[in-house]
Write a structure and sequence with these properties.
The protein is of the alpha+beta class and 175 residues long. The protein has six helices and seven strands, in the order βαααββαβαβαββ.
Amino acid sequence: MNSIEVRLAQYQDVPAMRQVAILSYEATFAQYNTRENMDAFYIDSYNLERMQEEFYEPGAVLYLAFTEQTLAGFARLRKNQEVASTLGNNTIELQRLYIHPDQQGKGIGKLLMEKAMEYASQLQVDWIWLGVWEKNFKAQKFYNGWGFEKFDEHVFQMGDDPQIDWLLKKRLSAE
């Protein structure tokens, strides 16, 4: 097996991250959505300028996984107050965990999740949480294996199609 290097992202990594995000998203969701809705999502959420702005979002961190100098996946965590009414103020969101379609099944998701958990533990947050599409059963199984459980849901707008994301949580601090 090739060695996998995980490191913090640098600004110049953003175009490669964008490409991995689109390829991963395409492989996971294209069969369930119209081309128009996929393209609208990319224009809104994965345009280069927006991802470059997100790089500097206060409270956000990006970890990249490389195999032989090739970006294989990334994880993005960020502090926000989106679930404060449910989980309190001391949380962090695992906003993105994307693996290049050609690199899935090689342990990259596990390494990125370990790094995300390590980072969240260092921050001493009470909860790490994420949103996952209700029909993304592969991702749900992965997160369940890490001890995440559903606590809520919200609408995720995919172009003109309102979809349901499950919100999953995992407690990191002692109660």
